[in-house]
Amino acid sequence: IETKTIHHRTWHCVCHYTEIPKSGDYIKFDLLGQSVLVLRGKEGEIFAYHNVCQHRGTELVKEKKGNFPRLIVCPYHAWCYEFNGHLRNAPRTEKLENFDTSRIKLKSVRYEIFAGFIFVNFDQDTKPLADDLVGAEKEMRRFMPDLDDIVLVNELDYIVDANWKVIVDNAIEGYHFQLSGPVHKDLASLIDFTRYDLRAHGKWWDFKGPPTSVTTAFGHPIANEKYQSKWFYNIQLWPTTTFYVFPYADVIGTFNEIPLGPEKTLLHFGHYAPKTRPQSELSKAVVDWFNNELGPEDIDLNTAVQRGIHSFGFDQGPYVIDPECGPNSEHLVRHFHKLVYETISRDL
After folding, report:
1. How many other β-carbons are positioned within 10 Å of the β-carbon of residue 128?
2. What pTM value is reported for the model?
3. For the chain, first and last CA: distance in Å?
4. CB 236 within 8 A of CB 228
5. I want to staple 191 with a disulfide (CB 3.0 to 4.6 A). Which of 47, 87, 209, 241 is the partner?
6. pLDDT above 70 covers what percent of the chain?
7. How many helices (H) and strands (E) does the chain have?
8. Is the per-residue pLDDT at 348 higher than 80?
9. Tens digits of residue pLDDT in 178-216
10. Residue 313: which residues within 8 A CB-CB, separation 6 or more?
11. Strand ordering across the sheet containing 150-160
């Protein structure tokens, strides 16, 4: 039900536009039985296609990213497509009566660009992404001033034995920050937690953590450093895309929770640095810290929940929501659950 009502009808982040800089560059995005190619055309334009040949349904590419030198060539019978999707030629079809290459074209997938990132949606009739994200980009740019001047410097995939919603739940509350593992407590020490602010805005929600007064962060002095923001800022777009910056770090992070099944999720992390200045040692340390310390600590929490909810001893716990919806409140978790419930209920 979720695949049909949520994931195949909503917008999913594939990449930043700078990840396909040259003609023929592509990135493949897979989601619950569907596969998409996002491609740079010969004139710099962007195309998005279902990753499937129109002859026998063969997947056109297996690799996650690469470059087509001149044409998109099917690996099965060498049907060749232009970057605009039109069939250029197909071996031996000249022997077929009335075979017309102009009638055959790769099937397009709807795409849009938001804050420099390319999103796709399998539903051709869905409303524009911007309709759901009023005010979101403006808020992002307050904390991510270099959004238009970034390149990918690191990416990492984890496969986690947990449902995608368990992972989102964990990502959208600060309640556990000062109470769970030591890495979260280290992060919380950089934030003035009394002013940690979590707010829902319909199909997007964000949290802002103002900085404490520190001279070092992530083991490095912060004096004379360039950085996106002193603040901790995190924004999630319905249903599975997150952007964030850590205090004093000159990198922008992405965090996508891509469901693989009921109890398995692919977490794709990407980190982007400004292309007009060298990446600082502090920023490199932040990426390493996230990949090797904070990320694994969160994954342990996610898998502990997934195992625990199978217990005969658990049914349903209460939301911890204080009246002022403060830094330790779970009001965003409830907001997210309400969106899931309302979305899947429309087709029940």
Report:
1. 12
2. 0.95
3. 8
4. no
5. 209
6. 99
7. 8, 19
8. no
9. 899 899 998 888 999 899 999 999 999 999 999 998 999
10. none
11. 150-160, 264-274, 252-261, 241-245, 232-237, 204-209, 197-200
CA contacts within 13 A on the Cβ side of 294? 20
Which two structure tokens, joined as six digits, stand for 50? 């279902």
**Tell me, what amino acid is at 304?**
A
In this structure, the chain runs to a length of 348
Task: Kindly give the pairing relationship between strand 80-81 and strand 72-73.
Answer: antiparallel
Average pLDDT, the chain: 95
Q: Which residue has the tokens 């990213």?
A: 65
Please report, for residues 165, 283, 290, 346, the alpha-carbon distance to residue 162 in angstroms, rounded to integers and kept in the order given. 8, 29, 19, 25
Which residues are registered as beta bridge partners of 236? 205, 242
CA distances from 39 to 67, 86, 173, 268, 306 (A): 9, 14, 36, 20, 37
* Residue 288 three-state SS: helix
293: tokens are: 């310390």
> What's the DSSP call for residue 292?
I
